[in-house]
Amino acid sequence: MTMVIHLHRTPGDDTPSTYNLPSPEEAGIGASDWSGVSVSSALQYLQRAVDPALAFSLSCRRGLCNVCAMRIDGVVTTACTTPMRDGILIEPARSKLLLRDTVIELSLVRRARMDAVTPLAGERDA
Ligand code: FES
């Protein structure tokens, strides 16, 4: 069984790129079915076998760091913890912070978090 991914890669373009994935065996993925494979693993396959220019972020692969956050079928979630499904739509989490493909600028988010904890750090130091 093949699997279809629709991936928004161009800001302002409502037409997503469509990729037909081969079976996991043909793709060299250690699974019998794509539904047991994470979205991030499918993106890794696409980057490795189809388009080396595809950009996405990945770090812990356990749903802990949120670096791989993207909008999947309309819901912002982590790609490493979301299982693949046929016809899945993948978009950047925030189009205003988009750098490329599904990669967004996280420094603003991190700065906001640091600003939120800075008063506590100041109290601890005083
Ligand atoms: S890579 Fe860390 S949450 Fe997905």
UniProtKB/TrEMBL annotation:
Its EC number is 1.3.5.1. This is succinate dehydrogenase. The lineage of its organism: Bacteria, Pseudomonadati, Pseudomonadota, Betaproteobacteria, Burkholderiales. Its cofactor is [2Fe-2S] cluster; [3Fe-4S] cluster. InterPro entries: 2Fe-2S_ferredoxin-like_sf (IPR036010), Beta-grasp_dom_sf (IPR012675), SDH/FRD_Iron-Sulfur (IPR050573), Succ_DH/fum_Rdtase_N (IPR025192). It holds the Pfam family Fer2_3. Residues 37-107 form the Succinate dehydogenase/fumarate reductase N-terminal domain. Belongs to the succinate dehydrogenase/fumarate reductase iron-sulfur protein family. One of its GO terms (biological process) is aerobic respiration. It is an enzyme of class 1 (oxidoreductase). It comes from Caballeronia mineralivorans PML1(12). SUPFAM superfamilies: 2Fe-2S ferredoxin-like (SSF54292). GO terms for molecular function: electron transfer activity; iron-sulfur cluster binding; succinate dehydrogenase (quinone) activity.
